[in-house]
Amino acid sequence: MPTIGVAVSIPEPWATELQDYRAGVGDAMAATIPTHITLVPPTEVEGDLDEVERHLASSAGHVEPFEVHLRGTGTFRPVSPVVFVTLVEGISQCEQLADAVRRGPLDVDLAYPYHPHVTVAHHLPDDRLDRAFRELADFECQFTVDDFHLYVHDERRGWRTCRDFALGEGE
């Protein structure tokens, strides 16, 4: 069974900047996880991906492109050892998109309520999480989201894009 994820990718140059930061703070997963905003968390899918891809294409067609503004940091501590860059614009659109894609073959239960964010440090000692929280407090960027991606997990290479889905172009 393939393990998939669905996410909005962060464009360059910010994707590399945040991924390099994540690696530099000691997060071993940085090299295998593209910089993103999760829509569907890692999920095992039975059978082929055709049904999932048809569902995602249909979902993408019903959502128009939107703006995202990332600024500052947040954390899920003490519940989860995560530091992230926060969304200050695009939150409701990410929520609507996530709700649309988490239906049908991707109707998955979430461990926590959905909260769009960009992880920059995960499962690290508190001093490194504190460092990431401080050092990225002034981070800021803005971009247009006009697509999202289906990722498949490869045990050796990590998460790889399988297919892109353009927003506002329904099938």
Description:
- This protein is of the alpha+beta class.
- The chain has one domain (3-166): Alpha-Beta Complex (Cyclic Phosphodiesterase, Chain: A).
- The chain has helices at residues 14-24, 50-61, 91-101, 126-135, and strands at residues 3-9, 36-44, 66-75, 82-89, 117-122, 140-145, 147-154, 158-166.
- Strand 7 and strand 8 (158-166) form a beta hairpin.
- The protein starts with a strand and ends in a 5-residue tail after the last strand.
Concise overview:
This protein is an alpha+beta fold and 171 residues long.
Looking at this protein, list some descriptive labels.
single chain, 171 residues, Cyclic Phosphodiesterase, Chain: A, four-stranded antiparallel beta sheet, 4 helices
Set down the secondary structure blueprint.
Elements: E1 3-9, H1 14-24, E2 36-44, H2 50-61, E3 66-75, E4 82-89, H3 91-101, E5 117-122, H4 126-135, E6 140-145, E7 147-154, E8 158-166
